[in-house]
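tokens incoming
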């Protein structure tokens, strides 16, 4: 029998609406509706959330690991499942598990392990590289950045359907290779790029729909060459992710970006995990990670932490910050059943408090017990 729940006494953020006097109804794995308290059917079990915030499960399209589980270093089914468990506890109910530039052989091995794991929380893989611009490589090893060719892309993506997103430097990838990626259904993102305004705009017009961690590892915005950031601001439809931790970008930059981009800007964590093996040895430095040589290598953010920073430091209202972590990434990946509360949306739900800590998390209608 499908479990029927009514979440009451909460401040409900549905996507574009906010309610303080209604109940969120869950039937089995799906949202049944939002109703007045007087309209709650008698068969629904009442769950009092005690005045806390209720929003759709958070969506992170770029995360590499949690705790001490960096997937690219572990490469195990167990690692994927532990990352899923950790993220659910944080209120992140959908994510793209990300691998930074590595060997093609490792990427192919990771794809097979991911398929074997059959993840339920992760929606697919995001390959950040290896088709990047070495001049903007950041923490990515120079020697592993390679030229994109049709044969290499075809080999990498052969006989698989788990790679959903790829970050490339558009000025380094020929139009015919970009077209092949698009034909394979990959969400292509521009990043680790030294593209000029014209190069970036041309790539957007050819089908690149988003930009990876705006401001970081890309051509700068200058008054005579506004580069990739300027092209991103100027294009009517292209989206961009941003890491709002006050380290990867200043809060002022986040505020300015939001003013330019509105609903096209969404949140990611770009979070990594403590790791002392392999090519990415991440060392935690209080609230971020660095390589052993001090190069900034990833954040220590959670998605709720990113929402908190938007509200407390970037003058972004809570409802809009929530949309940046739910509705906007869901729309980008064309999942109308995620990131919102509508009838028959998947019942992924996070209940959080004023400290931006997850108090209750529901995944497909079932409460996650820590």
């Amino acid at each position: 029998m499908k479990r029927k729940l009514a979440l009451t006494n909460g401040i409900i953020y549905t996507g574009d609406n906010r309610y303080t006097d209604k109940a969120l109804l869950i039937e089995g794995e799906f949202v049944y509706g939002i109703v007045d308290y007087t309209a709650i059917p008698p068969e629904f079990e009442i769950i009092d959330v005690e005045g806390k915030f209720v929003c759709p499960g958070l969506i992170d399209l770029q995360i590499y690991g949690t705790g001490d589980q960096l997937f690219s270093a572990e490469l195990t089914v167990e690692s994927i499942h532990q990352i899923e468990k950790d993220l659910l506890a944080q209120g992140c109910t959908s994510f793209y598990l990300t691998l930074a530039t590595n060997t093609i052989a490792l990427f192919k091995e990771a794809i097979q392990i991911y398929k074997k794991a059959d993840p339920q929380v992760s929606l697919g893989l995001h390959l950040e590289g290896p088709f990047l611009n070495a001049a903007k490589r950041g923490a990515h090893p120079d020697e592993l950045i390679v030229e994109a060719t049709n044969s290499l892309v075809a080999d990498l993506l052969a006989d698989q359907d788990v790679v959903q997103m790829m970050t490339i430097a558009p000025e380094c990838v020929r139009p015919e290779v970009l077209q092949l990626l698009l034909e394979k259904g990959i969400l292509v993102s521009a990043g680790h790029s030294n593209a000029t305004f014209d190069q970036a705009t041309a790539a957007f017009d050819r089908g690149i729909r988003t930009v990876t961690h705006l401001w970081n590892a890309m051509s700068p915005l200058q008054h005579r060459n506004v580069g990739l950031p300027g092209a991103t601001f100027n294009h009517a439809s292209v989206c961009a992710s941003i890491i709002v931790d006050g380290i990867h970008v200043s809060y002022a930059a986040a505020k300015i970006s939001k003013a330019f981009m509105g609903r096209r800007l969404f949140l990611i964590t770009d979070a990594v995990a403590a790791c002392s093996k392999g090519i990415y040895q991440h060392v935690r430095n209080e609230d971020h990670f660095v390589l052993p040589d001090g190069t900034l290598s990833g954040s220590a953010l959670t998605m709720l932490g990113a929402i908190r920073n938007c509200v407390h430091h970037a003058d972004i209202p809570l409802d809009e910050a929530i949309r940046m972590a739910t509705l906007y990434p869901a729309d980008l990946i064309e999942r109308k059943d995620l990131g919102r509360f509508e009838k028959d949306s998947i019942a992924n739900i996070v209940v959080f408090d004023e400290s931006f800590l997850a108090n209750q998390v529901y995944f497909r209608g079932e409460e996650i017990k820590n």
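note: The first strand starts at residue 4 and ends at 8.
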